[in-house]
Design a protein that fits this description.
16% strand, alpha/beta, 228 residues, homooctamer, nucleic acid binding (chains A, B, C, D, E, F, G, H), Nucleotidyltransferase, domain 5, 3'-5' exonuclease activity (chains A, B, C, D, E, F, G, H), globular, RNase_D-like (chains A, B, C, D, E, F, G, H), RNaseH_sf (chains A, B, C, D, E, F, G, H)
Amino acid sequence: MSWDAAPFVYDDPDKAHRILYEALMTVHLHEGDLPGDLDLGPVVAVDSETMGLRHNRDDLCVVQLSSGDGDAHVVRLKRPAYDCPNLKRVLADGNVLKLFHFGRFDIAMFENHLGVETRPVYCTKIASKLARTYTDRHGLKDVVRELAGVELSKAQQSSDWGAEVLSPEQLTYAASDVLHLHVVRDRLDTMLAREGRTELAQACFDFLPVRARLDLQGWEDADIFAHT
Amino acid sequence: MSWDAAPFVYDDPDKAHRILYEALMTVHLHEGDLPGDLDLGPVVAVDSETMGLRHNRDDLCVVQLSSGDGDAHVVRLKRPAYDCPNLKRVLADGNVLKLFHFGRFDIAMFENHLGVETRPVYCTKIASKLARTYTDRHGLKDVVRELAGVELSKAQQSSDWGAEVLSPEQLTYAASDVLHLHVVRDRLDTMLAREGRTELAQACFDFLPVRARLDLQGWEDADIFAHT
Amino acid sequence: MSWDAAPFVYDDPDKAHRILYEALMTVHLHEGDLPGDLDLGPVVAVDSETMGLRHNRDDLCVVQLSSGDGDAHVVRLKRPAYDCPNLKRVLADGNVLKLFHFGRFDIAMFENHLGVETRPVYCTKIASKLARTYTDRHGLKDVVRELAGVELSKAQQSSDWGAEVLSPEQLTYAASDVLHLHVVRDRLDTMLAREGRTELAQACFDFLPVRARLDLQGWEDADIFAHT
Amino acid sequence: MSWDAAPFVYDDPDKAHRILYEALMTVHLHEGDLPGDLDLGPVVAVDSETMGLRHNRDDLCVVQLSSGDGDAHVVRLKRPAYDCPNLKRVLADGNVLKLFHFGRFDIAMFENHLGVETRPVYCTKIASKLARTYTDRHGLKDVVRELAGVELSKAQQSSDWGAEVLSPEQLTYAASDVLHLHVVRDRLDTMLAREGRTELAQACFDFLPVRARLDLQGWEDADIFAHT
Amino acid sequence: MSWDAAPFVYDDPDKAHRILYEALMTVHLHEGDLPGDLDLGPVVAVDSETMGLRHNRDDLCVVQLSSGDGDAHVVRLKRPAYDCPNLKRVLADGNVLKLFHFGRFDIAMFENHLGVETRPVYCTKIASKLARTYTDRHGLKDVVRELAGVELSKAQQSSDWGAEVLSPEQLTYAASDVLHLHVVRDRLDTMLAREGRTELAQACFDFLPVRARLDLQGWEDADIFAHT
Amino acid sequence: MSWDAAPFVYDDPDKAHRILYEALMTVHLHEGDLPGDLDLGPVVAVDSETMGLRHNRDDLCVVQLSSGDGDAHVVRLKRPAYDCPNLKRVLADGNVLKLFHFGRFDIAMFENHLGVETRPVYCTKIASKLARTYTDRHGLKDVVRELAGVELSKAQQSSDWGAEVLSPEQLTYAASDVLHLHVVRDRLDTMLAREGRTELAQACFDFLPVRARLDLQGWEDADIFAHT
Amino acid sequence: MSWDAAPFVYDDPDKAHRILYEALMTVHLHEGDLPGDLDLGPVVAVDSETMGLRHNRDDLCVVQLSSGDGDAHVVRLKRPAYDCPNLKRVLADGNVLKLFHFGRFDIAMFENHLGVETRPVYCTKIASKLARTYTDRHGLKDVVRELAGVELSKAQQSSDWGAEVLSPEQLTYAASDVLHLHVVRDRLDTMLAREGRTELAQACFDFLPVRARLDLQGWEDADIFAHT
Amino acid sequence: MSWDAAPFVYDDPDKAHRILYEALMTVHLHEGDLPGDLDLGPVVAVDSETMGLRHNRDDLCVVQLSSGDGDAHVVRLKRPAYDCPNLKRVLADGNVLKLFHFGRFDIAMFENHLGVETRPVYCTKIASKLARTYTDRHGLKDVVRELAGVELSKAQQSSDWGAEVLSPEQLTYAASDVLHLHVVRDRLDTMLAREGRTELAQACFDFLPVRARLDLQGWEDADIFAHT
């Protein structure tokens, strides 16, 4: 099932001189797995929706992906089997860079429920912390507003992603979280290079799967590098 | 200047069945740099003393090293020149594993004042957090007491390491912090292997120099991987 | 005295595709006690209004009940006599399930002022905590909005329920708190079953009257099961 | 392996008029499981030692039991198989009351690692909270000091219970935690009866296995009955 | 100088059935002192405006009074002389009850700057705490909204009351704070009587001047009756 | 039953120049009530022991009194009848000043369990707060140490005062709390007069029974005079 | 490049009697340095924009100045060379008073990146704390609203000031921060004089460059004058 | 009245190699004022004792001075007249440097009660914060222990300094606080010079009287230089 959603509303009147992002996004809903013949290219934006934030309790429900072309692929997983070889192949593919915003959570979820180690990865939250030193607001909504000029709705963020049928509002919300990560990454990479922090960011991305594994194994509340 | 210090007092009467660590340690004081002909072997315990905990304010004063044979080499550095090529060579030597307890601080100090990247490293504090899950006490004093059976004195921990002449109490304290790290590492490696966490610990050690660089570059108060 | 209140306004424009709940509710006001011949069926939603939240100080003023048919029965109690045998009979009836939202408070109030033990009970707040793991918002307003699609007004929540004459706003507010609990319970039961937590929820409901008694007897600030 | 430990030292000089508890305890160490022919009677004190406090990370290592006759049986479990049918039978035996101090933790550990539901249970910490209203100190050490007149050492509380060989200090510590629970329960039962709280305590004990299950299933940080 | 201000706007649309308080208030501005021939009757509402909240630093600037007839008398004091015998006479008059909202502050200010002990007094904040147990909102704005049905503006609360010329907004704000205290007191007295707390409230009012003196003498941060 | 206890040990070696308080105290234990013919004079030190600190849960168990002559009268009350007319007469006698340390608690207990209003009263804790401005330590132990030169033991403070038989340690502890209040009051009165705060202290003492009543009626957690 | 910005919108309808500040401001953008022939007079308002708030990490990007005539000069600096002799001359000129709001930050930035000590200075935040004792809101937005009657927008406060091209919104925001400081200072000086605090304020301004140097040298988190 | 006190006990066994400070101090007690003919030289250590820490409530009682020769002059002031011209002359003498530890408090007390501005001053607490960056312990006891090798007793710190007769313990305590400040200053000056912070420290000392005046005038809780 695929459909075209309304264009994003550009809601900040102070930024009227910018060019509005007018293209329609297309949302593709896949039940159980990605299609086997779908090629999302070398850089894929990824996000997921779950029953909650606790790894040892809350199931993985939905995974969203986008190649950065304005389309979003929303995969509704069948739990507890999680039989989705195509999705797992993309996540584990060493030649495909996965773009996340706060990937720590998703990567741990994927390892826990899908049994795959997600590598290589890029995290726009970490990149934002290293590049956007002029603010302490690094949520997806803030980052996308400033760097992509798009206002995301978060109304469906906490909803029942384990329901038998997902509502259009849920699907649109899920899709929107991956649509802009490519643009955001481009902007952040420019800033990181300008400030001389590209290498530092890459080293953090490389450690991210380890950090996710620490979460899964019981150190989710600890900063393992902290003094106390 | 070298001398023999008194044997460590084993102060816990409840542990009377353990074998007391009786050997005398020998402390070697070096002014300015390590001797050029000193070979400390492939695994060197390292610690340092500074004017304080702030990288951008407090100078590095003393570096202590031990090969694990009961001798400690205490190097009193000449600031602000820090002309100590032999010491720097050991720290940067990719074939010499440097053992620290909370190496994050020392590594950042070495990068900041000596201009060297310290690699490869092992941190007994991180190892303790991963292995000794039954406690939240991972200070050097706690770890050495339990794993090496030795009671360290911390009386000189906060003293004037920038003084023209260091007191015998300061030198003994400085030396004692590196004497037992080899034993502690052996015990922790056994526990990590038993619990299946060797690989996880290694991945954390590998990231430690990056974490130290983040400290130096202005993220010392932030857990870069945290959600907020 | 009975009257028809206005239909609930469905105030979330983003959910325009849902079917609006159009039926009028009818509010029945009873002075002192329920009518003796009123049969509310095997599952009764119950709520109460008081002079405040302190059991040993604040009187019980109003009890509201609904059989789930859209009608609400609001009983204005005569304090301090609380001579209301019909109401007490319903609360203590072992064959009538009482639905509450945060029943812990009401059950304690009923034991304290009416001298009845309310059993069996169902608490939509506890059920929500066990089923809606994707959120930490389990207030009645939040639960009813998501699960019944109705926006409750809380404007009269803190008002003088001990007044000689209750205002229409107070009566409407009181009635609205019991009208939707049947629908909410249905939704939560479906979710609990889906996640395999039906038995766990039932065990918590069974303990609820004990928890209320602990409140009355002086452990209102303590989690009796906590470590500290 | 069994041996006699030293009598407990009664260390409070202010209580010199009390009768010192002089009997020697005998500690029996069992590898892997309880002996099949050991009958511990209808009321068994139980405690356990683990690799830490996190259910989803830390293994169960040791279970201690006592029939209240001054002997302690310390079972060192073989993980991860946990093949100990005799121990499991005692824990699950509906005709044997298990005495714990803060049983919530042990019961969850047993369900998680041994796969048994421990019932019926009695918890001296809960009983102490309900009876000893004159204090907020309900740790085992405090309760045993006041009600059994014995001073427990807690020096080995945080030690490596997963070690291949447990030290005599560890075994003595483990044994001491179950030796006095029968006496403590007697004293607490007298006080609960005097204050009219026997029934209330029993209702709390009955809920304890549910509370432990909530811990295991992901609500370990929540008071499920709390308002927020 | 006197003038008529606009009628209060009744801004809560939900309360449309209530009767709007339409009468105009008249504000009388007095420079330096009350007129000598003004008789405000046996019950006078009083409030004051100052340079801040610290008794030992911030001057008293304005005192407002009302007899409850809809008129407000605003006295702009000349500091540091505070030569205002008529005002002082009213405050100290044992036959005139002074109505305050949080009188503790004003009474201390009057003692500090005017040298008078204000007695007898009534405090609508204390009365509200004792009567309106169903809320924890006892600010003047909250109390006046609920009990007098009037919405007060607080926009000028923090403004420069020591200015040479007070703005119309400041004068209107100052006046509005005393206009409704008589009505509020009537409502609160009814509630206190209904709940049997009239005597308790009176005892608190009687202590209020002592509490104000404790503030002045250096115990402003302490609850003198607290355990710690 | 009466007996002589050991003289108080003066345990501060730094104060060796002070004269040791050598007189023996005599403790009189009365079951149920004071003797009818006991005259304790116009100023009586009073303290009590309870099952805990919650008025609505914890029973009053023991009341201690002293006329200041070195004797202590310990009354063990029979609950729940509390049939003790002689004790109640002393407490309610308007011609007998009752000395307390933190009398707020005892006065509320007496009103709650004995049904008497205790007046007039003097509180050494309040007096200490007003006179000893050079410290924030106003516990009985601190006040008695400094002003009476006696070191009180607090070891029995939290013990089972509801037990059938009180231990000698409990009785000695209970007695010691009233033995020194007369001396302490004399010292504090001298200091209050020197600092000009006698009247302020008296006004606080007069309010104390009201403050106790507020505790009983449900405002135990609130400072009724606070802004928030 | 210079242009005229829109007049400031006066957005507070309650202040309709004040005269609207209608004059257009003119913004002059200078790349790299101030023009050599620009004379800003004896009192210059100064503000700056940076990559963040950490002196040892975040670069200085923009400095804004105004002589108080309604024009703003925005200097976009070339980092890391910071070759701007004209700007440095103004900052270091002992005959030019620099007006800041929270100058502590800017002065430290100038010393760190430009190598100049900025003297003499005036800080409207410190002056506001000393004069406006009736409020705790001393942000630039609050101060300018009350004292200049102008509503500043803070929307661009956290934006990428290191970008190659600054947006018109950024330039307008930067300019607006210096336009009103002369008016604000006049108002504050009047209030300081009225309250007798002119000398105290001047002494604080004189210390401000020292306070900035303490920030740079590592005491940025400490109040050097605090007890702890 | 003068007498010789016992030599200071050197209580740290670890420092046995240091030379014990054996000289006897002589304490001179002066009633009301310093003798007119006493010349304490160009650098005088000063401390004071008060009725407490609140400037607007607690009286100044005792001032201690020492020229650094081992003698201490303790002046017991007559309040409230504070007629002590000789003492005031020393404090205000621009040619006599006054050494304090946390002089902020004493300077404010002197201005408040004696009406003198104390200048010039040196504060060993501020100097310690700037020099001893390796610790956060800057209390007099800590500083004197490390830098003078003397262990001060703090037992009389909180005692009744307003008493008619001061005890020998109080006098000895008061005297000891000024005996070692000259030595401490010498050590700190050496460290400040070594670290290049002499000028910074002097600028802080110069501001100290202003900081004290801010305390007196109502900003005692505020860091006037803080952002918030």
